[in-house]
Amino acid sequence: MTDPADILRTVTEIAAAETGIAQAELRPDVDLRGMAGVDSVRVLRMVAKIERTYDIEMEDEDVFGLSTLNDVVAVVDRSLREAAA
Q1: Are 19 and 46 in contact (CB under 8 A)?
Q2: At residue 70, what are phi and psi to the nearest 5 degrees?
Q3: H or E segment to which residue 24 belongs
Q4: What is the pLDDT of residues 62-78, one digit of tens each?
Q5: CA–CA separation, 47 vs 24, rounded Å?
Q6: Is the pTM value of this prediction over 0.85?
Q7: 43 vs 24, 37, 66, 85, CA distance in Å?
Q8: Is residue 82 within 8 Å of residue 1, measured between CB atoms?
């Protein structure tokens, strides 16, 4: 099973690449949608890359409820656990 800290590192790297925001600015509890330059298209591209990276498919209601990197980590962690069960 993947450690949540490892998931956070990977998700932060992907978020930085997709949004153009420096990793240092992407704290786990910051509202991504409130950050300058982050729109729904960038969030969806980030989600798609995360799904490909972890070979998972997040539920639409989960995706639309994401606000922070911590939210993303929780959904990825849950999806990985469900896939392993």
Answers
A1: yes
A2: -60, -40
A3: none
A4: 988 888 999 999 999 99
A5: 20
A6: yes
A7: 18, 11, 9, 28
A8: no
